[in-house]
Each structure stands twice: as structure tokens, then as C-alpha cells.
Amino acid sequence: MGNSKSGSLSKDILEELQLNTKFTAEELRAWYQSFQKECPSGRITQQQFQSIYAKFFPDSDPKAYAEHVFRSFDANGDGTLDFKEYVIALHMTTAGKPSQKLEWAFSLYDVDGNGAISKNEVLDIVMAIFKMISPEDVKHLPDDENTPEKRAEKIWSFFGKKDDDKLTEEEFIERTLANTEILRLIQFEPQKVKERLNEKEKNA
Question: What is the pTM of this model?
């Protein structure tokens, strides 16, 4: 972004982010000032993103998940995000609309970026999500989804795929929209994490 190194957030970017996220102008301006302090170059690296993401989830280990989130938003693969990309990443992973989240979720699960999802890629993401769930919360999960392997198997079976099959974006979105159980299983944040985020917002 041409405005990345300027001292204040441009009106165009501010209006675009207000339109496409739930964040207020005051929040966005405050975040921009903080972003500029932490990332004087106007761009954030994967390591910096992981550090900031960890502040949202102090009681868990979001490093692997944050790495996948970063990769899914680093469209040009240069290893950095500008402020706009950074805010949209946070919005999509915490408060985006269901349709937006599914488009993004596909790119999250498509780990190698080849346009299709494999069973192993599902397991990769589910393993990252499990690192964000406390052992106590895991105890309350159903027996057929209380490990990453079991949950990945359950997700894959809902899609009706064989172990070596691939899942296209169209199939992923269509079947997930038609089956709330799949949506629950692939959810991008554990429910307890969502509740913690909501508490943070109420207390802000």
C-alpha cells in the first residue's frame, strides 16, 4: 500500500476497512498507530503476526494456527502483510460473515495452495486448532472428535471422500453450507476462544 509508511491512516483505507469489517474508525486508527510503532516499515512479518495473535489467546498455543492464517492472507507470498491485509486477517478469523469465512477457510485448509484440499491438509489445520483448545475443553468433546486425527476423519467422512481424494473449493463451500455439522467441525476458532474474544470486546 502506498500509504503504509505515512503517519496517519488514509481516508480511503479507513472507509474501506470500516465497510468490510466490524471495527470502528477509532479502533482502526488506534490499531494503525500501534501497527506503525511495532512495524515501522509498514509491513508485518509472520513472526510479528504470531506474536500479536498470541496476545488474543494468552491461554493457548496459537503459533501453528497463526502461521496458517498468515499464509492464507499472504497472497503474493512475500512473507509480509500490510496494515489493510493485517486488519482483514484479524476480522475474517474472528468476526467475518459465514460466506466470507468459508472462502477464507478453503484457502486456510488448502495448505499447499494447489486449489484443492487433501485429507492430510485437513489434519494439519485441525492439529493447529487443537493446540488452541485447553485440555479441560478437550475432555468435553465427543469421543469421535476428541483428537485431531478423529476430528479430521469425521470431517473427511462428512464430505464423502476417500483417503486419497481431493476436495474442490466449490464442493467445500457447497457441502459446508448444507451441513451445520461440518461447519461446527471445521470452525476456525474453538468456541471457548470465541467467548474469550467477546469478553475482551465487552471489556474494551
Answer: 0.74
